[in-house]
Write a structure and sequence with these properties.
Layout lengths: L2 H20 L2 H17 L9 H25 L11 E2 L17 H7 L4 H12 L4 H8 L3 H14 L11 H17 L2 H7 E10 L11 E2 L1 H12 L6 E8 L2 E8 L2 E11 L2 E8 L10
């Protein structure tokens, strides 16, 4: 099979794996690109019996290397660290299957960050991609018995099941649009009605732009925060609603440049979590 065809076949899987491992769209893209370059340069005399496993192993190793090299930066990161937002088009294209599952939500990616690198990769290969333990063992270089133990240990650390509740995306988007309109109108009662009482707002400016360093807890404080911010937004600001990490979200622009990306997670028809990424380094891939 030619490299171009292999790329079309395996790129969604490999990108999804790397992105879930790293929480970085740009790093995931680079790693997937590198994997196919290495495949092209592979010694023709060495037959590759399972190309998918071969590519997954490269992506796994490069992802772990990237995580380890970034560990010190994460330790001194200013404020809340959030994954780079994955902005998706509204599409039924089967090739986007791996990237549109609920398990790319920001909340789920943050849970994965609690696992070690090995736990994360074993958990993802088993839970998300339904690999058997022998296949996982060949990718991570451990015995199948060891992989089984690692998976069960990781599973205990992940209490959230991303597939447990199926919700209508169109309906959820409607709530976000109502919330946005209420904020723009300064309608505090409507804003409060759309937020769960124990809602949480997270923002990631990375110390490079103004953003709340700590999460904002509770509907009252969140509503005041947003109603205060809206009065300071420049006239040239515009927004576009989008699907962000599988959830309703929006992109905010100023002077034609992406300034903020927000995503919303819902529970019982109310907004439970709001995630805002403002760190410009995490928005370079978004147009």
């Amino acid at each position: 099979m030619k490299t171009e065809k292999l790329y079309q076949t395996y790129k969604p899987l490999l990108f999804s794996l790397a992105y879930r491992m790293l929480g970085s769209v740009m790093d995931a893209e680079d790693i997937v690109h590198e994997a196919f370059l290495l495949l092209e340069k592979a010694d023709p005399s060495e037959e590759i019996h399972d190309i998918k496993a071969y590519l997954c192993k490269i992506v796994t190793n490069r992802s772990i290397d990237t995580l380890r090299s970034a560990a010190k930066k994460r330790e001194v990161y200013i404020g809340t660290w959030l994954p780079e937002p994955l902005v998706e088009e509204y599409s039924d294209d089967p090739s986007s299957f791996y990237m549109t599952k609920e398990s790319i939500s920001t909340a789920y990616l943050l849970l994965l960050q609690q696992l070690t690198e090995t736990e994360r990769i074993v958990f993802l290969l088993r839970e998300m991609f339904q690999y058997n333990y022998d296949e996982i063992a060949s990718i991570v270089g451990k015995s199948s018995t060891n992989c089984r133990q690692i998976f069960h240990r990781a599973k205990k650390g992940i209490s959230h099941n991303p597939n447990s509740v199926k919700q209508d995306f169109g309906q959820l988007s409607g709530y976000v649009e109502k919330f946005t309109q209420a904020v723009q109108d300064g309608n505090i009662s409507e804003v409060l009605a759309l937020l769960k009482k124990d809602a949480i707002y997270y923002s990631d400016g990375g110390g490079k732009v103004t953003a709340a360093i700590r999460p904002v807890y509770g509907a009252e404080y969140i509503s005041r925060f947003f109603l205060g911010v809206i009065t300071k937004i420049p006239e040239d600001f515009s927004l576009k609603f989008a699907k962000v990490n599988g959830n309703p979200g929006m992109i905010l622009y100023s002077s034609g440049k992406v300034k903020y990306v927000l995503s919303f997670e819902m529970n019982d028809a109310k907004i439970e979590s709001i995630y805002m990424v403002a760190n410009p380094d995490k928005l370079r891939h978004i147009k």
